[in-house]
Amino acid sequence: MSKAILTVGYPSSGKSIVLNVAEDMGLNTISMGDIVRKKAQEMWSDKLKEIKQNPEKSNETISELYARFATQKRQEHGKNIIARWCMDYISDSEDIVFLDGIRSPEGVEYIKKHMECHVIFVYAPANNRYHWMLDRGREYEDSFTPADFINRDKQESNWGIDLVIEDSNYILKNCSTIEDLEKKSNELLLDIIHS
After folding, report:
1. Phi-psi region for residue 151, left (φ > 0), alpha (ψ -120 to 50) or beta?
2. pLDDT digit string (tens) for 6-52?
3. Distance between alpha carbon 66 and the CA centroid of its chain, in Å?
4. pLDDT, averaged across the chain
5. Whole-prediction pTM value?
6. CB 3.0-4.6 Å disulfide test: which of 54, 94, 101, 156 passes with 161?
7. Residue 139 pLDDT > 90
8. What letter does residue 55 receive in the DSSP assignment?
9. Domain count, the chain
10. How far apart are CA 65 and CA 8, in angstroms?
């Protein structure tokens, strides 16, 4: 059976660093957040364009619109819809796939029907995550206030991230340097690959 290595963690915890390590190892990597943004751009292009053209007239940010999109699609198509979208990018011949940013237990269960799953919780303290979010330069996050950051974490909780964290198989603590997280990620991924 093929293996899926999944990361879970709150925004700006360091999941993309682990993803980069997986890419450097030659694994097929899929960012669930990128899939959500891609689908939103396909399905809600008019709404995104409106916010981008008139941000001062909008009552939500781009980030909030992506969250609303993901929530609405989960309500319309089931809580595992993001995982189902991601599975479209995985070929049957692949031995190991790295999925970044699983959010719901239903998504994990869906992937488990197709692959052996190993879930890694990437942990970082909230204060660090907030400052890293402001610094990472992702679209429209540089203006996040502490309240925006807290609301985003609450949204993630509503999707079931805490339940995925509870059931994760491994934990990577991101409390030091990027190099430290890269080293720990490399060691853990090698252990999972060879298990």
Report:
1. alpha
2. 999 999 999 999 999 999 999 999 999 999 999 999 999 999 998 88
3. 13
4. 92
5. 0.91
6. 156
7. no
8. G
9. 1
10. 21
d(CA 75, CA 81): 9
- Say how far residue 11 (Cα) sits from the centre of its chain: 8
Q: 48 Cβ partners below 8 Å, 6+ apart?
A: 40, 41, 62, 65
Bridge partner residues of 17 (DSSP): none
Domain, as residue range, for 129? 3-193
CATH number at residue 44: 3.40.50.300
pLDDT confidence bin for 75, thresholds 50/70/90: very high
Compute the distance between CA of residue 141 and CA of residue 93 in angstroms, rounded to an integer.
Answer: 37
From its phi and psi, is residue 108 left (phi > 0), alpha (psi between -120 and 50) or beta?
alpha
CA torsion, ordered 120, 6, 106, 110, to nearest 10 deg: -140
